[in-house]
Amino acid sequence: MTAIRLHAPAPGWALEADVVVIGSGVAGLTAALRCAAAGVKVTVVTKARLDDGSTRWAQGGIAAALGDGDTPDQHLDDTLVAGAGLCAEAAVRSLVTEGPAAVRRLIETGARFDTSADTGEILLTREGGHHRRRIAHAGGDATGAEISRALVAAVRAAGIETVENALVLDLLKDADGRAAGVTLHVMGEGRRDGVGAVRAPAVVLATGGMGQVFSATTNPPVSTGDGVALALRAGAEVSDLEFVQFHPTVLWLGPDAEGQQPLVSEAVRGEGAHLVDADGVRFMLGQHELAELAPRDIVAKAITRRMRERDAEHMYLDARHFGARMWETRFPTILAACRAHGIDPVTEPIPVAPAAHYASGGVRTDLRGRTTVPGLYACGEVACTGVHGANRLASNSLLEGLVFAERIADDVTSCPAAPGAAPDAAATPDAPAAPMPTAATAALPLPETATAAEAATAPEAATAPDTAATAAEATTAPEAATAPDTAPAPEAMAAPETATAPETATAPDAIAALVAPEARFAIQRAMTTGAGVLRSAASLAEAAARLARLHSGAVDALAREGKTAEPSVETWETTNLLLVARVLVAAAQRRAETRGCHWREDHPERDDAAWQRHLLVSLRPDRTLAVRTTDTPAFPATIAPFPETESYQ
Hints:
By secondary structure, this protein is α/β, with parallel strands linked by helices. The longest helix has 25 residues, at 537-561.
């Protein structure tokens, strides 16, 4: 089956497994441990060290109805409100009802949460959007680090095979289009080096987020959208990518600060810190019933408005009333980070501003974590399970990774046909698939590497320059429709016939034109200025035009000259960033309303009649984007066909 893959050397080595898990955060390691416990051969691939995933950066905690008087229904209500009308209620209900038991299993695995010295019970705090104290934390403000420590220790004790310092490249498929493993590049010398492959009939994406698509983010450097990009090239659908959560309180390090920025956890506000302007005015009072503990999208917007009103580059978080002892015991990590940058929260307010933090959307899955590609699963931040809707509720991310990783493992290990196999029409989205084939039966030839010249003459690649839109065409098309039911007719924006011809099992893979690493900063600047906290038709059009020029330049060089950027980790990452940036901007252009963490200045109101629905995006063989809109807030089954409605370059 035709797919798009990165230009890379041919794999020089291969491993066999029943399941390959990509990522070593809470989602990936939980899936690996649960699969291994069922007797399945698992290989974990991680981009850095095993203990260096995004989970370790989580400060606040993990949300679950563990306290007296709290219930899953109350947790569900808070999650639905934060999600602004786009949560999948069945997914949220699975999260909140299975969450408490999943947290207890995490404790049995070895995670140590902060407990009361008097009763021994888990200490719980509040964060934005929660009406109850239901956030369990560890090490004061080092919850993610403790969860990561416990899971890494358990994986090592279980003897699960791991491949560290490895960037995943592309999905391998069999002749029927099912997932059959991945190609990857191991960075550095060791037992395995360079490009290789892990053959497995079940592939679990748990690669984390894509925060590095923006200039300033709380995400670590490894968060370059690799999982979403891989899934798109493999033919999977992504959804809700326009909903990027900007954390309201990120330590402000100056106007030119770039890369990973220190987070000031929501839990600081949960314990009573106040947001104030330069005059000491608490501007969140009267903005929302929960004031500083309103959902994150509301707080981020309020901070941004106040900054604009005062022509200020940041606001302040004032927690001087905590005193030194509370800062040192409850928030030691944040205290150390602030002091490292010359700020002492014990004696002065903390300068803060919103920064990119979390992708509420991602690779679309059902309740078992199955994507639209059979055998390919996704969980954690890379996935769009429907839990978060238009805005994630604070501290639901660790719980989502935990719960849906367990669901994936159960589907992979305890069913009647191959993992991720499409259920029949009568099957429910939550119905299990079946026992998977072994790694031996899933073996298939590894892909051969095409030269740049060969890639340029492949059928899909040859049509790319002719189908590339101008900047104006690429950016004005979405604005032609202010609501889904007024979208232009499919033929008005369709790609040429050669680009949408039926795929065949013998057709060659198209090669993705690689983007030079120096384009990374141009991508980040375009996204920050055009698709950041504040968006408009004009800002998004400018971002789309800048991204289109980068994309067209790479495609033209490949198709006309047979040239592409030199394959390398930095090049592959930049290529991934450009792809996810294009998808994000295309979706943000199309969604002509303000909802959750998507704020359109030119469409400032939420429009349920037109937009209480999802945008689904896929990548065509000619590398253009196909976008469609769901009819209702509910997601279609992951095995639904993909009728094309709009085209973006």
